[in-house]
Amino acid sequence: MKKNIILGIVIVLVISGVILVARFFSGPEDTWICQDNSWQKHGQPSSPRPTSGCGQIQTENIRISSPELDQTLSFPLIIEGEARGNWYFEASFPISLLDDNGKEIALLVAQAQSDWMTTDFVPFKTIIDLTQLPETEKGVLVFYKDNPSGLSENDQEVRIPVYFPSPEDLTAVKVFFNNDRLDPEYSCYKVFPVERFVSKTPAIARAALESLLRGPILKEQTNGFFTSVNPGVKIQELVIKDDVASVDFDSQLEFQVGGSCRVSAIRSQITETLKQFSTVKEVIISIDGRTEDILQP
């Protein structure tokens, strides 16, 4: 009887050892694996698909560092990489963001960050402001070689599969611009809202203001929207306290700005963008800490 019990124990231990060895050599179970530049299920993982990227695109003509393949996007979306000089035309090339049905969510232009008249790689950067909610979970970023010839044989593109954030992870904000169609007489102080979607953040007022400073996107421009704010303006500080938003900008805000009409438009754009929030009843604008003698006509 004792021998049978001992034999049974030995058999159980041997079987358990075989199972453990098999699991060890078969790789991890119930997890996500980055394979062939996309996230693949291994077993039945209890965790959701990773939101981080799964590898970068590197081709003969373009290298894309952000976003990565299969990444869950956040907005505004910063796009960065390098492309050979012949991928550009006049220092830029187009990028589109499509949903899984091929519907265009955004169309924008990537700008070279240094001299593009070369055959070497040239860094580029651009930012996508989301103006409509995607209708699918997956999407694709398409990087087009700029083709001024219009000849199909010169067309080239690189595609990156991505995932959209869920609608619950996005917040709608308004940014205010001038519009020569809605206000054909251009009454300066009149500004009109467009809607943007940003990833949820406790600094939502700053996110809206930064979106304003990037100006209208191509589609908004075709609908008559334009900005009176200089390009390249930076927010140095934004404090909201006791229903007052105090925002300090760098000197670019008033660089070569003249005329009472434009000054009025700039103030209106900033003020209305901040006053959409219930915590803001008044807006104080400063430049390098100065509130007096700024934005003079």
Low-confidence stretches: 18-27
Main β-sheet, spatial strand arrangement: 3-4-5-8-7-6-9-10
Largest sheet: 8 strands, antiparallel
Discrete helix count: 4
- How many β-strands, per DSSP? 16
Give the rounded overall mean pLDDT. 88
- Straight-line N-to-C gap: 105 Å
What is Rg?
27 Å
List the helices and strands in order: HEEEEEEEEEEEEHHEEEHE
Helical percent range?
10-25%
Number of domains: 2
What brief labels describe this structure?
297 residues; alpha+beta; Immunoglobulin-like; 2 domains; eight-stranded antiparallel sheet; three-stranded antiparallel sheet; 16 strands; 35% strand
Description:
25% of the residues are buried. Residues 18-27 have low confidence and may be disordered. The protein is 19% helix and 35% strand. It has 297 residues and is an alpha+beta fold. The radius of gyration is 27 Å and the shape is globular. It starts with a helix and ends in a 10-residue tail after the last strand. The protein folds into 2 domains: 57-165, Sandwich (Immunoglobulin-like); 168-287, no CATH class.
